[in-house]
Design goal:
It is a single chain. With 85 residues, the protein is mainly β. It has one domain. Helices cover 0% and strands 41% of the residues. Strands 3-2-5 form a three-stranded antiparallel beta sheet, with no helix packed on it. A hairpin with a 5-residue loop joins β2 and β3. It is elongated. 11% of the residues are buried. About 9% of the residues have low confidence.
Length: 85
């Protein structure tokens, strides 16, 4: 029987920039997820998608940065951008 991980939505709005790189890091196990804010500065990440999942009490850190020059932006169906290598 498969193991399911409950969603843990992490979302917000960066008010002083758009199309910024967002890194969500689980400080407890070192795993990271990345996304990019949309044109309105909004982002959302599902912490349940960490490879090891998440546990109550895990410390989650949000890191905001600019996109590297070599990164390509791909527009998704909902108009958001995602990071590609």
């Amino acid at each position: 029987m498969p193991t399911f991980t409950l969603p843990h939505l992490i979302y917000g709005t960066i008010t002083n920039g758009d199309f910024l790189k967002i890194i969500i890091r689980n400080e407890t196990n070192g795993e990271e997820q990345q996304t990019i804010t949309n044109s309105k500065g909004r982002y959302i990440v599902d912490g349940g998608n960490f490879t090891s999942g998440w546990s109550d009490g895990d410390e989650i850190k949000l890191i905001i940065g600019e996109l590297p020059q070599h990164t390509e932006n791909i527009t998704t169906d909902n108009g958001d951008l995602r990071l590609t290598d």
